[in-house]
């Protein structure tokens, strides 16, 4: 089966459940002499190439300087030693190409998308950006100021920061609690030397992968990557593996974030989740679809459609490389806070009180099978998936067994997954709203810690 037929099969599987088995297209994995991992996946349907550099470094490595990885990741695009920011922007814009950078909890990424014909001009420039950033101090200062202003504005909308408060609450003093974007005070204090030091320590070939997906010949592209990245050398010992933390949920707790002028209450309820490479990752997406993963889910039906308590409600497993979190999330008008919280908790308990019947499960399975393949049709999407697999140590078996894992899910297996992975006791709750009005409600859900949303940080 050639790659064109594979692409057609993937698209068809979205429309007809069970019509085609979803499998990841073939790709080569190469390790260069300097330790750099290279993924090469040919896709000849359209004359486009997506290239991405993934570095295993993110907020968990920020230590006492939250936001440093995020600033460093974005600052890569401020210019290389040979080309300033204006020259780089013009080179990509002139050709209708795109380049972006950034950092999350555990990895940092530089990605570019361009036409096959533009690869000779833009691929070397991409390599420059990754290996020889200038971190121009003037441009860095502008970028830092923009980030600080963004942090100040983010707390005006609680839904922007609810997950950050939630993770900080669940992980306490461990690295997973560090906010990826940093705080106003921490980012304001970052200097050029901090960014340069972070780059030197973590951006190195034995801690990174280059992923190329698109219209090229693998043998030729491998030579190009070796030519462009083969001289990249690491300095000093490789970063040591670290324990990034576990969810603290020994008792029911509530983090009450006071926003004195709030007319709504934003809330999250949950606890520990799963790692991205957990073998139950795929079937759990099906179970969560029933609870809160689509518009017709139990949570949205109860909190929005049937009661009118909110404009939307859902649930999600947010995965990390070592663990993860689970949360029900919604928001409601201040006077409806008590009713919305009670209904959200009651609806959640349906997982155990009634379970998931066969008809409901089959509907969710068809939905998930229709949603999953279209996420990985374009070269850019596939490059993102390979990057995710590299950063989170996900084997291709999880992707290739997607259809089998969904089809094999029964009500009995769903019940076992619910008992194993969905937190039922000692739930952790974040409430962001007018504390004066909801303080007594908060007390009914656990031990309360109260903070001001205007305070720096997230705990």
TrEMBL record:
**InterPro entries attached here?**
Metalloenz_LuxS/M16, MPP/UQCRC_Complex, Pept_M16_N, Peptidase_M16_C
Task: Describe the location of the Peptidase M16 N-terminal domain by residue ranges.
Answer: 45-179
- Per the UniProt entry, the signal peptide is 1-19
Q: Which domain of life is it from?
A: Bacteria
Q: Does the keyword DNA damage apply?
A: no
Query: Which Pfam family, an example, fits this chain?
Result: Peptidase_M16
Q: Which Gene3D superfamilies match?
A: Metalloenzyme, LuxS/M16 peptidase-like
GO MF terms here are: metal ion binding
Keyword Signal tagged: yes
Ranges of residues in domain Peptidase M16 C-terminal: 192-366
PANTHER family xref list: METALLOPROTEASE, PROCESSING PROTEASE
List the protein's name.
Answer: Predicted Zn-dependent peptidase
């Amino acid at each position: 089966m050639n790659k064109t037929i594979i692409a057609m099969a993937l698209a068809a599987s979205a429309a007809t459940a069970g019509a085609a088995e979803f499998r990841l297209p073939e790709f080569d994995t190469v390790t260069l002499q300097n330790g750099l991992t290279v993924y090469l996946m040919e896709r000849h349907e359209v004359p486009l190439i997506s290239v991405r550099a993934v570095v295993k470094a993110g907020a968990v490595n920020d230590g006492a300087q939250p936001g440093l990885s995020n600033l460093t990741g974005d600052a890569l695009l401020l210019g290389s030693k040979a080309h300033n920011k204006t020259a780089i922007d013009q080179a990509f814009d002139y050709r209708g190409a795109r380049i972006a950078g950034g950092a999350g909890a555990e990895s940092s990424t530089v990605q570019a998308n361009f036409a096959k014909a533009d690869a000779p001009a833009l691929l070397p420039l991409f390599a420059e950006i990754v290996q020889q950033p200038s971190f121009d101090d003037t441009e860095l200062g502008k970028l830092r100021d923009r980030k600080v202003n963004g942090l100040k504005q983010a707390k005006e909308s609680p839904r922007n920061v609810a997950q950050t408060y939630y993770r900080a609450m669940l992980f306490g003093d461990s690295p997973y609690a560090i906010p990826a974007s940093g705080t106003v005070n921490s980012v304001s204090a970052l200097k050029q030397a901090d960014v340069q030091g972070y780059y030197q320590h973590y951006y190195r070939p034995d801690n990174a992968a280059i992923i190329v997906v698109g219209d090229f010949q693998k043998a030729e592209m491998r030579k190009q990557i070796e030519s462009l990245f083969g001289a990249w050398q690491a300095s000093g010992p490789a970063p040591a593996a670290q324990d990034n933390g576990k969810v603290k949920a020994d008792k029911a707790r509530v983090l009450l974030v006071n926003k004195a002028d709030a007319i709504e209450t934003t809330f999250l309820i949950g606890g520990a989740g799963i790692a991205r490479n957990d073998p139950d990752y795929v079937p759990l997406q099906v179970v969560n679809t029933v609870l809160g993963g689509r518009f017709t889910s139990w949570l949205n039906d109860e909190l929005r459609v049937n009661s009118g308590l909110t404009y939307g409600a859902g649930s999600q497993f947010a995965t990390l490389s070592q663990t993860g979190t689970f949360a029900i999330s919604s928001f409601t008008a201040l006077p409806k806070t008590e009713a919305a919280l009670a209904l959200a908790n009651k609806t959640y308990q349906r997982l155990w009180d009634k379970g998931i019947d066969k008809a409901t499960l089959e509907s969710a399975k068809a939905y998930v099978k229709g949603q999953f393949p279209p996420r990985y049709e374009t070269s850019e999407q596939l490059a993102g998936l390979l990057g995710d697999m590299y950063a989170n140590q996900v084997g291709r078996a999880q992707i290739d067994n997607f259809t089998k894992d969904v089809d094999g899910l029964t009500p009995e297996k769903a019940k076992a997954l619910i008992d194993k992975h969905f937190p039922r006791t000692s739930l952790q709750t974040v409430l962001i709203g007018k504390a004066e009005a909801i303080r007594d409600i908060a007390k009914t859900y656990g031990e309360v810690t109260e903070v001001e949303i205007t305070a720096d940080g997230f705990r």
